[in-house]
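Q: I'm teaching a short session on how sequence maps to structure, and I want students to see two examples side by side rather than one. Could you give me a first protein with its sequence written out and its structure tokens following it? Keep the formatting plain so it prints cleanly on a handout.
A: Of course. Example one:
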Amino acid sequence: MTDHATPILTRRRIEAAILKDVYDVLLSTHGAKIALETIRAAVTQSAISQGKAMATGFDHAPDLLDVMEILKLWTQDDALELDLISSSESELSFDVTRCRYAEMYQDMGIGFLGGVMSCQRDGSFCQGINPRITFHRTQTIMEGAKFCDFRFTLNNASNGDQ
């Protein structure tokens, strides 16, 4: 079940505190590679599950106008500042110019895990909410860029599943 009452930024802070401890334990017992791969796998699975849960709130396969509505949850409490480029049922493009998620991970001393804990969720979430949505991004604030370029497209080719 997805909790819409708790802002996502707050949820990510709570998750990050727990995942940092898990990372530290795995780091000491299995090394950096296994620790990072395990956190990545867990966050990916969580994002897909959250996308699937979000999809159940629609009476149709969510399109990118629906994702635009969901974006309100991602930006709640000024978590993201963005410049909208385009939005339609089949295309959604925007640039994030400020990311409080990145700021939060830096403040927590775990900026090095921010991309795994947050940025990688975006594409995985799309897999869960509607596998026909593709996500592309070439840069992130988390990695030091001035902005994150979010580009979503909806493949309308039906494979018999919607």
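Q: Perfect. Now a second example for contrast.
A: Example two:
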Amino acid sequence: MSDTIRISSDTVEIEAPAELVWQVIVDFAQYPHWNEFCPAIEAELEIGSPVKMQVNLGEGLQEQVEYITCIEAPHRITWSMENKPGDPVHADRSQLVTALDGHRCSYVTYDDFSGDFAAAMVEQLGERVRQGFNLCARNLKARAESLHQDA
């Protein structure tokens, strides 16, 4: 297996409490209202839950199914491909929320890719994934700040 390759969004500062940002991330039913990168997602907030989603990598929506592998509320959620031994590409997407103070936090999301064909996949799609993650981060910032102002 190859080394891990990380594709990451920029880290954004959000003028809203970390707990509110976490609630936006895990309120999957509301994604169509704010997340242009992943406008459709179905999942339960529990380890092992399938995450059925549609993502926009610049060529229309693509369906994907991954599985929740880590929940550290209100700071981190990770979902992953099945990642069976011998799969050509393994992927684990994490979203991290870090409180900066009681009213601000930072957010970053990244995918860790590994496997024999990870480098080729990242060469082909890595920039699109990065752009999609940055779009998601900007959308999350706008949504959380709007909700915080309305509160």
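Q: What should students look for in example two?
A: Point them to this: The chain has one domain: 5-150. Also worth mentioning: The two ends are 48 Å apart (CA to CA).
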